User: What shape does this take?
Amino acid sequence: MKKVNWVLVSLLGMIIGTWFIISILQPPVWVGHSADKSWTTTYEVEHSLKETWKGMVFWNGEHEVIITEVELSRNGNAIHGWEKNEHISSKGEYMYLSLGEAENNRDDELRLTIHWRDESGNYEEQIELSPKTRYLIVPRLN
Assistant: This one.
């Protein structure tokens, strides 16, 4: 009986250890927030067959705003951007990017610039993104 328990514990430990190792070898999630925490952003792989990367921006304010321009840059060079009027409601989110380009280099400097406006005026936010290691990734079945 004790041998069966030892085998089950060992097997469970090997499964969790393998899951951990596979998870930390995956590309990081890039996250950031504005200085006043009114904006939060993520840039991560969608785990599709094409390994598309998705950029999301979250508005944490209490009133509706309009995003007029977004630019994502790597090491000072723009890699994606658009200009349009996108309405974001209170506590809303918006997908600003979907690319097939991986961001595996943790030494890169990623910056998201958001131009937005509300009834009070026009604003610009600069958000530095930093890589976050994922330790136990739950597989997504798309």
In short: The beta strands are 29-33, 39-45, 53-59, 65-74, 77-88, 93-99, 110-118, 121-132. The radius of gyration is 20 Å.
